[in-house]
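User: Earlier you gave me the apo prediction for this protein. Now I'd like the version with flavin mononucleotide bound, so I can compare the two side by side. Same sequence as before, with the ligand SMILES added.
Assistant: Got it. Here's the input I'm using:
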Amino acid sequence: MKAIELNGKTFYPPLFLAPMAGLTERCLRRSIYKMGSLGGVFTELVPVFGLLNSRLKVEDYIKEDETDYTFFQLCGSDESKILKAGEICVEKGIKLIDINLGCPVNKITKGGSGSALLKDPEKCGKIVQQLLKNLDVIVTAKMRSGWDEKSLNFIEVGKILEESGVAMVTLHPRTRKQMYKGKAQWEHIKELKNSLKIPVIGNGDVLTKEDTKKMFEDTGCDGVMIGRGAIKNPFIFVESVKLIDNGFYETSTLKTKIDFIEEHIKNLEETFEEQKSLHFAKVFIGKVTKGIQGSSSLRNSLSTLKKIKDLKDKIKEFKETILKEE
Ligand SMILES: Cc1cc2nc3c(=O)[nH]c(=O)nc-3n(C[C@H](O)[C@H](O)[C@H](O)COP(=O)(O)O)c2cc1C
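And here is the structure of the complex with flavin mononucleotide:
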């Protein structure tokens, strides 16, 4: 695997944690990044109007020591507003801005943001140009293949983004209309890679280390971004690197997984107030324990737990049962 260089900054290994609103809160991003084996992480989409009316604060998403590896994802439609939000970001020390050209949710697209921007490739270019003309920042973009199957314009949009100065582009090869249904069409990633000079990151349906390897091989992409697969198995990055570099991997043990959950709960407690920590911990545990034998009763009990201490006791009990059985 080759490192990705963006304006003199190195990202290695070329693996990235995907932005996922409601899931990849800043504590989880940090915990996964600290394990090593990934080059960067993305914040969930941050609506520019929230930054402009001060309801959202940059520092709630990112700490100063995270700015070299965290891409701050802006979601908006108007280039002058995106620029104003970009100014706020740069003032707060953001070095990497990602533009959301993929969100399929109605609430976002009806205002012309997210994947709706794919309908106006020139505007995508203008957004990037405005940011780069006025701010000292690296701009990347994350997009879908097009609005629907009749308007697959990822190559056109990719070329405009590249000409406008985008440093790297991530493609989640589904259309807006597909939402998360069907299969990600990896052949679109290959086509985009063959059409652009800037690094192209492949994303979509990478659920195992073997999928990571296959994504590189099948598409020739420069890097791989992993979302849902990383929530199910946060060790997917470590395992993928071992598989690709050494041809072997050790599957992470259940104990390692539960140790990670316990450590993550501690980090959440240090980061957020109790009810928020509890909420994020439950969401994560609900996903990360799926597939572990005997874990359904743990998941079923989550909604009854009202305090973080109760949750910690429950995890401890679960760990003891599992380890006894292993
Ligand atoms: C719950 C959820 C929230 C998401 N939020 C965002 C987001 O804020 N910004 C974004 O660009 N993509 C978002 N995505 C899309 C993912 O980043 C990714 O493109 C998609 O899940 C496909 O990758 P995967 O198969 O590895 O999960 C989200 C996906 C999910 C499932």
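For your comparison, keep in mind: The mean pLDDT is 96.
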